[in-house]
Amino acid sequence: MEINNLLGMDTHIVIGIVNERLRLECNSMAELASRYELSETELTTKLAQQGYYYDPLNNQFK
């Protein structure tokens, strides 16, 4: 699955993919955004629309 198309996917699918990548590959939201050429703001806004927020302490969206 192409992570580059995240902003066009259903939010519930996006949260699973993003949290998996944060857990297995990236140490921060900034690293995830840089590695996959994503906009942190756009991704955070998309997930916030469904009530998710980034928790930097646990490096995941909740």
Structure description:
The protein is mainly α. It has one domain (3-61). It has three helices and two strands, in the order αααββ. The chain has a two-stranded antiparallel ribbon with strand order 1-2.
Task: Please supply descriptive tags for the structure shown above.
single chain; 62 residues; mainly alpha; two-stranded antiparallel sheet; globular; DUF4250
Q: What ranges have pLDDT less than 50 throughout 5 or more consecutive residues? A: none
Domain module count: 1
> Main β-sheet: number of strands, strand sense, barrel status?
2 strands, antiparallel
| Topology order in helix (H) and strand (E) letters | HHHEE
The overall pLDDT, averaged over residues, is: 92
As a percent range, the share of strand residues is 5-15%
Amino- and carboxy-terminal Cα gap: 22 Å
Give the helix tally: 3
Q: Tell me the Rg in angstroms.
A: 10 Å
- Number of β-strand runs: 2
Short overview:
The protein is mainly alpha-helical and 62 residues long.
How is the topology of this model organized?
Blueprint (H helix, E strand, L loop, with lengths): L10 H14 L4 H7 L4 H9 L5 E2 L4 E2 L1
Antiparallel strand pairs: 1-2
Protein name: DUF4250 domain-containing protein
InterPro entries: DUF4250 (IPR025346)
